[in-house]
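Duplicate of #3305? Posting structure anyway:
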């Protein structure tokens, strides 16, 4: 059976749309439709019910979904094992959101390679839904993300609480005068809700980015401001390309590790040991940034979005 047909089936099932599946697979909608038709012909049953609202799995489609995931998992295991380069004994595939790669994911790879030099590493980037799908399919074995999804065969662990801080690319910025130079970064539903409640003057800035920490690269070369992870922003604060905005509240945003249950025990232990040491170091750096922010504030305290009473009244 063509593995491309299986991947297309899982994408349509996950998105409920041929159009969205085509976007994720980087092919045309007609190509996805033809793949699904071929698969349905091979199985002799319709897998999706089509309607103007989109598509949904038929009973046969729901039954086939678990087999499709198993087929992809077996394929990925075979592909990864056969692709192990000469001189290496095993592979480890890691995925992470962009914001979690620079000071967490890259350090994790360094630690694993140092402890187990015979392991070949493969790295992926993506948003939580894509990373979760890759985990379930066996494309990756471990992931770092902000909003994990609880699924059979996966286990999760909260690693740390990212502190999102308001940064501007110029010194002397004031939270009361940012409205025309502010970029709204979508850090998830909880952040957006707290932001709307406590920072109403910044809720319609004209620019909304779903780029995470990558937004730092945009604002630092323009006279703009945005909420960024303290861990990520620290290097830009240190070199003077970004500046803390006094009196701006912070927001706690947890980061998670997600493992496949069948990850090699030795690799699992190596990852957990590495993460423990890395997180300890990150927390120290984050605390230093928050102390700098507290020193800038008149009362020496740092407010937290979602935990503020009568903010800006």
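Output from current build:
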């Amino acid at each position: 059976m063509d593995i491309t047909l299986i991947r297309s089936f899982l994408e349509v099932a996950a998105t409920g749309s041929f159009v969205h599946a085509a976007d994720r697979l980087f092919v045309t909608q007609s190509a996805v439709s033809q793949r699904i038709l071929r698969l349905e012909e091979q199985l002799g049953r319709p897998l999706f019910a089509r309607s103007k609202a989109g598509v949904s799995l038929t009973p046969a489609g729901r039954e086939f979904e678990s087999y499709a995931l198993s087929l992809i998992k077996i394929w990925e295991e075979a592909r990864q094992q056969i692709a192990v380069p000469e001189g290496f004994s095993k592979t480890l595939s890691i995925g992470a959101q962009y914001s979690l790669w620079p000071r967490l994911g890259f350090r994790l790879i360094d630690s694993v390679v140092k402890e187990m030099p015979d392991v070949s590493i493969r790295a992926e980037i993506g948003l939580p839904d894509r990373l979760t799908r890759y985990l379930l399919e066996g494309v990756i074995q471990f992931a770092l993300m902000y909003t994990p999804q609880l699924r059979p065969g996966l286990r999760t662990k909260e690693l740390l609480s990212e502190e999102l801080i308001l940064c501007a690319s110029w010194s002397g910025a004031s939270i009361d005068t940012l409205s025309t130079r502010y970029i709204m970064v979508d850090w998830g539903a909880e952040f957006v809700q707290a932001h709307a409640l406590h920072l109403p003057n910044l809720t319609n800035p004209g620019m909304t980015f779903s780029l995470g920490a990558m937004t730092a690269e945009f604002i630092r070369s323009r006279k703009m401001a945005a909420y960024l992870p303290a861990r990520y922003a620290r290097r830009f604060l240190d070199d003077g390309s970004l500046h803390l905005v006094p009196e701006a509240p912070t927001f706690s945003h947890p980061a998670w590790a997600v493992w496949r249950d069948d990850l090699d025990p030795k690799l699992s232990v190596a990852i957990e040991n590495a993460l423990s040491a890395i997180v300890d170091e990150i927390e120290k750096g984050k605390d230093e940034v928050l102390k700098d922010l507290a020193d800038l504030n008149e009362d020496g305290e740092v407010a937290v979005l979602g935990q503020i009473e009568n903010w800006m009244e």
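Confirmed duplicate; merging threads. DSSP finds ten helices and eleven strands in the chain. The domain at 3-81 is CATH 1.10.10.10 (Arc Repressor Mutant, subunit A).
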